[in-house]
Amino acid sequence: MQLKQYQKQSLEALEQFFSVVSAIGAERAFERTLQQQAMTPVPYNDRLGGIPSVCIRIPTGGGKTLLGCHSIPVAAGQYANTDSPIVLWIVPTDMIRVQTLGALNDLHHPYRQALHSYYGDRVKVCDLETLQTLNKHDIGKSCVVIVTTIQAFNIDKDKTHQRNAYAFDENLSEYFTGLTPSQTANLDKVTEDTLQYQPFLTQQDIGRVKHSLVNFFHLHRPIVIVDEAHKNRSKSVFATLQRLNPKCLIELTATPKDNNVIYSVSAAELKASEMIKLPVVLTEHPNDWQACVRDALIQRQALELIAQKESDYVRPILLIQAQDKNGEANIPAVKQFLIEESHIDESWIAISTGDTKELDNINLFSPSCPIRIVITVAALKEGWDCSFAYVLASLQNIQSAIDVEQLLGRVLRMPYAKLRQQNELNKAYAHVISDSTAKATDNLKDRMVENMGFNRWEAESAIVASPQHSLSLTETDTTPTKPIEPQVLISVPFKVEVEQLPVELKPHVKTYETSQGTAVVIAQGLSDDNFDKIEQAVTNLATTSKQQNHVQTSFQEGRATRQAAIAPENWNKTFAPIPQLGLFVDGFWQLADKEAIEDSIEWNLLDFPISLEQFNIRETANSFEIDMDIDSEQVTYSYVDTKQLHFEAMPTTISEDDLVNWLDKKTRRNGVTQVQLRAYLLKLIRYLIHDRKFTLTSLHRAQFQLVQAVNQEIDRLFSLARKQAFQGDLFEHLKVSEDVTVYNTFEFKAGVYPTKKPYRGSWKFKKHFYAQVDDLTEKTSTGAFSEEFICARLLDMHPKVKYWVRNIPKQPHSSFWLPTEKDYFYPDFVAELEDGSIFVLEYKGGHLDTADDARIKNDIGKQWAKDSNGKRKFLMAKKQDEVGRSLEEQINAAILM
């Protein structure tokens, strides 16, 4: 299974951390990784007494378990220095333990296939009960994954006799033979208390190492992965983890608390990666559960008809959250209404509660499965995933509904993790009991933030009110009509009454008292001027600067919600296709991506001098140090006690071919044949042994750092070859195809914009194609407008600009890029002009580019625009250019050219 872009970037962040943590420590490695990922600096939280601990934040539906599988070889190879890791996989409940265990043992499941892609058949999966059935020789030869819950270990230190994991187990004895004093020093021993609870032991066993699960893990230092890590934050949990002596801790969660987050995935990234359905189209029903069910049924039926146009089989399912047994809309009443009033076939209905489990052993994805409606009361069982769930009808009042966010998460997952051909199937639908759209929307947004891993701004754009006519199954006029600004709810931390507002604004505002202050509901269709006046009027009622700041932030969110609703992407508009640069290979145009360029460059590793100056080994009788240059920073890996490396367990004889074979598997890449790579590696090893005077044993001991250094060196050599090629004939061969097709153009698609840091400011953009504007700061710390904001505003105000997009860097599948001799160049802004031409704008000064970087970008931009008869325009803009033109004059001249 090919990884999504956010998954690759998450693993890249893990690799950046683990590749240096043993050399510079967890705190510095964490700080360094945040900087490389352009994340806000936060202090490192050392909860495990020096054991590295990091977290990846992924919202609901992002595939945390799959990412966990791929994180194992990263931690194992970059930090634990092993090809045969022991992994302790901790999940929150026993039900999820059973499901995770089953998936990892299923050879056809993506989780197991992920492990197989790294370790082949050398994968063993078990739980604590079956650990003793493993062959002792699997340890150190295979990747061993043990799935369990923290409850198996979590207990006060003086009560460990209550957990089997701390007990002496003779079935584990084979793992405790031949241990050295240094290995047994910190292991639990048999005591007088042990004899009390394990009477088969005798006085002669006192002082003996306990053959226990806890000691097994303490001895072998597992990589610990904690799923749903927000549920395990107590002091006792971390004290328990310390007893297990893990090598490192990787946490996965949608809602981090004090976790050390090194990569945060946004819901927009999940949407752009086709993992989830968004937005959620919300319909409220004032106190009428029958109408709620009836409209939800119509919605589901409409989606099923639409789904018949899909190439993949999709059978939309309705989830109904009934009231408890004392409520009017309880399960029997709902089922009776479905069968008798709505004439639903009983075979279509399944009930899933603690007592009734009609979904057990049912394959909902099977075309032969008739189930289209699932009724529950609280949460569906943990781990229940069916991406065919499209519609949620919650019959409990939304203000007090239990677990509604868990059920909402069930309808977010995208079938087959692939964008549907019919746009209606790329959305989720929710019908709720509420007397106010704004209140229902705000309540769901709060739950998405608190329990589903959405940021506030993500939740703001994730819920949209439903136009009631959308439930109709009859053909209607499909001509897109620009929507009006929606009703929005603004929360403020003090009392506001309508009577306190200017008389001309009163008809447009309602207020509701809340536990935190007041909910100010602003009517739909209100003009921007009146919206600003309401903000000013509410701000005037604030009595402190803190309250004023809260009002400003809340109204910025409200303004963004209004802007999002009228964004072109949300009313069926399209952005013109953008021609891309490519290479003509054997008469056929090919996109000039990284792989195509690597294949087109004629280079040979053996043409370059053999060198590995950034790698050095210093060894004494009691120490072993490895010096490396990582990203231009000199770091040293020190092993003061050679026993830490377990040298005694390593083979005493190893050949050059053995080391070359191992390196060959770890350094393969596009553009280099295996024959060429092996010849290079053999020559490199001989150079290290004969010229640098490293022993083969030392190289073997340092093999994991060596492979890092070799990969860096091959990257460096390829960069030289790529630079030479761009400076030679390759650059002139980069051309835009004369024929415009979907294969040689890029398109900004509606809903595919992986925002991570959205614009929040007072200026309301009217022409930005997407609902959000990524990473755009309105004002600098001095209070002046930022230069890139000025660029964006000039584009938005220009009469010749139809739409524009703030281009997001490092998103090759959802952003426009141009190839360079280094990597990809993502221009700051891309605009479609009224005449259909494309204008690409890069602002020089907004980056820390060198003069050489700017020249490279300018050259490739001009190459893209060349021979287009004005249909492709490129500008490298400055605050003031060489002839004294202002930024506005430069942009105007380029557009009108």
What keyword list fits this structure?
897 residues, alpha/beta, seven-stranded parallel sheet, 27 helices, 34% helix, globular
Summarize the SSE layout with pairings.
Layout: H1 5-18, H2 21-24, H3 26-36, E1 53-57, H4 64-80, E2 86-91, H5 94-105, H6 110-119, E3 123-127, E4 143-149, H7 181-184, H8 192-197, H9 213-220, E5 223-227, H10 235-243, E6 248-253, E7 261-264, H11 267-272, E8 280-285, H12 289-307, E9 317-321, H13 331-341, E10 349-351, E11 373-376, E12 389-397, H14 404-410, E13 428-433, H15 437-451, H16 456-462, E14 463-465, E15 488-492, E16 509-514, E17 517-522, H17 528-541, H18 545-565, E18 578-579, E19 581-585, E20 588-591, H19 594-600, E21 615-619, E22 624-630, E23 633-639, H20 656-666, H21 674-690, H22 696-701, H23 703-727, H24 730-733, E24 734-736, E25 745-746, H25 787-797, E26 801-806, E27 818-819, E28 824-825, E29 829-833, E30 838-843, H26 851-865, E31 872-877, H27 887-896
Helix pairs in contact: 1-3, 1-4, 4-6, 15-16, 17-18, 20-21
